[in-house]
Design goal:
single chain, 572 residues, alpha/beta, 6-stranded parallel β-sheet, 15 helices
Amino acid sequence: MDHTREILTFQLGTYANYVGAHFWNQQESNFVYDSNNSQVEEEQLPQNDVLYREGLNDLNQTTYTPRLLSVDLVGTLGHLPMVGELYGNYVPLLDEQPTDDHLQKVKENAEQNNLSTGSELDVLKQPRATMSEYQKDLLKNAVNTQNKDYNLKETCSSWADYLYTRYHPRTFNVLQGFIRQSDVQVLGTHAAGVEIWQSPGFNEDFCDRIRLYAEECDGLQGFQVLFDIDDGFSGLASKLLEHLNDEYSRASFVLPLHYPRNVSYAQADSRTAQSIRVVNSVLSYSHLSEQASMFTPLSTLSTIWRNNTQQSRHLPGLKWQSDNLYQSSAVLAAFLDTVTLSYRLRQTPETLLRFCERVAPHGRKLTAAAMSLPLGMQQEQDLIDYLDQSVNTSLLTQLSPGCDPGTSHLVQSVVARGIPYARLKRPMEQAGPQLRMAAYGCDSVSQMLQLYYQCAYHGSLTHAASTPLPLKTQLPFPYEIFEDTIANDGFKLPSDGQREPDTRVDSAPVLAALQNSSKLGDHLDALHAQTHRVQLAKLQSYSLGGLERGDYESSLDRLLEFRDNYEDSHYL
């Protein structure tokens, strides 16, 4: 019998947890509890055991939670207790404060569930946290996804405000002493993150949590790592990847996340802050080029380094507030959820390692992300006609800042979702002009996409996968980002049609791709060019963090060596 090929996910940093919360919400929106009511065949659904684990709590109730380790700052958990809510450890915060007896029981239950690897666990009583209106309704099982406006785009102050998924007690790791501030990165530098990893108080406990997850797996195939690259979580991610390679030697798909706005650092003016951001990226890229199987920078901004205009990407059919963490992270999570279906669908033979090797051959580990959300097809339009009219235009919008892989000599993995088979093409007796198209011979969405890219992208190699499962866009997804020209099912309304007032988009078709070409070398050139304006000696936060000039220059050398992999003379 085939065993499950498990993946362990890491979310390091506040924005990574914003993206992760949307990602896990999306997973649970696709759970099927009654196959008779499912509109998607079972083999075309995700294999949830790849990312989830089954367990039992103290009440002998079965739990099903993400195989996940999350690291964040103090203050980001909001109302969520450190030890979770599923294993008898939930401290009531709505109507009463916990008693000393209750806290003692929390401590005993946490120790029994191996939530601390030290000799003794301390449980501290904290003031009651503010709970969002959405979470209050969720606790009462009274969430109104159709008519009530929770206004999360304005009121959301943490990813905990819209998290639907319940995590395992082992998941949360909070960096004590680092309290989140809305306007300043308190963990500012790559060096600060390295220092945290090397501290025994963090390292021993965190590595033991990794080990406990790994020992539960029958066939651990690798890791998904999301981390904030603009601050100290970049250093934490670099050391984590070293540890994973040393101890487990599995594939790692890494997604460095850039905040959708300029980041401020303690005691740093705007020019110094830009330099810190560049140095964090250089040190991260240097490590990723050696430690990751593949890495894909993600941001809703068009460019990152010294981007004073803060220009955001534009996806046709969407409109979001460019610096809003709740909305922008949902866009990135939609990409992640869609593109990873390539190795998570039940019907696919793809593994994480094969997925990475396919898109990142010959040392070209840097890849670019692109997506179309919503896809752009009109209601009642067939895919064959949509692709035919799009031959001279790009279907996708880039989500990797400063990256443009071009339209020739690409290697890419493309995933389409939410396109019913009935929308592929017309039956022969109704086909009319479609019969004259070469694509009419295609019998699946993935076949038609491969033919399209074979014709439109010269000298390129495309691997395509598809599922009729759409992206679910009901609460807590920010449904308000869809323009009025998008119908309830996510397809484009014909002509100048508009969606009926007070109605929401429930789901949407999506096309997502990971792309690689020699043109991504321009992204590395742009980063290296920014280093000429960096005066390392004047970056006090790095001087105090112990970064030596020689170590920084070695990282620059590795960056240039990595850039050589993207020369046109290299075989792709």
